[in-house]
Amino acid sequence: METIKATILHNFLLAPIIFALIISQVSSLSSPARPPPENAPVFARWLVKQGFWGVLNTLDSARSPFGNVMSYSDGGTGTPYFYLSTLDPTPHYANVNPRSSFTLSEFELNSCRGKDPQSPLCAKITFSGRLKMLAPNSREGILAQGALLKKHPQFTGFPLQNGTFSVFKLDIRSIFLVNLAAPPRLLTVQEYYLAKP
Amino acid sequence: METIKATILHNFLLAPIIFALIISQVSSLSSPARPPPENAPVFARWLVKQGFWGVLNTLDSARSPFGNVMSYSDGGTGTPYFYLSTLDPTPHYANVNPRSSFTLSEFELNSCRGKDPQSPLCAKITFSGRLKMLAPNSREGILAQGALLKKHPQFTGFPLQNGTFSVFKLDIRSIFLVNLAAPPRLLTVQEYYLAKP
């Protein structure tokens, strides 16, 4: 009886430690294996693959910059795909002028521990290019929709009474990456696509 | 002896529950008292006061939209203030053309529990306006610098070998807020500034 009690006591002594260990494991799962920042192409592909949301920027009707929070997925390809609603102004702006940029911060991955979001040690990336709607039955359209729904299962439940959703891609023309020190790293689109995330 | 053991056992039975309660309390402290989303001005002021970082968008040299991750503070005033380095392109772009927008997501506050960042139930806000440098010795410049250093103490330690930092404000001309359902809420700049966060 004494032994059983001691075992139970021992287990409950360990319980908070085990709980803390589980939490830290779950946290580390959310951003596995941060690559060395010196390898800019691999780091950029990792950041985009792990990321979940960012700010998609277009030109509004007065040709002023308009940023809008959007979820995305690259499906492991490096290209950011979006699921945009006609109730949001962004796809309308892109139809008039496709010039766009998409920005995300490593801060959302919980891997910038202790670093301010504006610290050059907490990575940030901006892709500049053209925002284009994908034909729903095209090969890329089907791939993109699958990647979006896999990463953002809530998209299937978004109610739409007076609008529709379409899949868009950002056709990347240039990349701005800060992941170790300012000023930003030189990183070509070709280097980015050749890297493995 | 048996009673002491039972008490210890009882305490350790409660330990994981107490630990979980502490965690939930700490989490709720990070985003206190989310206002009702129906009250758009108060909600917007709350979101901006609690927020920590966002994406600041300007027009690049080709007049395309360029978003850049930036920390900010409003010092409780409603106006987003920034501490921008000359090593970053954003202040240079703003000097040529001050048209800017600043976007942030409630997702960073950890108060969108279970909601996708693109869900209309997880709030997002975009301020459109003009990005202006503040004179360092002006009343607003001193207030803004104090608010920025208070919220982002790491700013004091940012090394700068070939650049300088200046304080900027976003002079707000219009507000885009989604915090309950698409399409966005109507919210005037006057209503926003009259509200108490």
From TrEMBL, chains A, B:
Residues 35-193 form the CREG-like beta-barrel domain. It holds the Pfam family CREG_beta-barrel. One of its GO terms (cellular component) is cytoplasm. It comes from the Eukaryota. Keywords: Signal. Residues 1-28 form the signal peptide. PANTHER family: CELLULAR REPRESSOR OF E1A-STIMULATED GENES, ISOFORM A (PTHR13343:SF17), CREG1 PROTEIN (PTHR13343). This is CREG-like beta-barrel domain-containing protein.
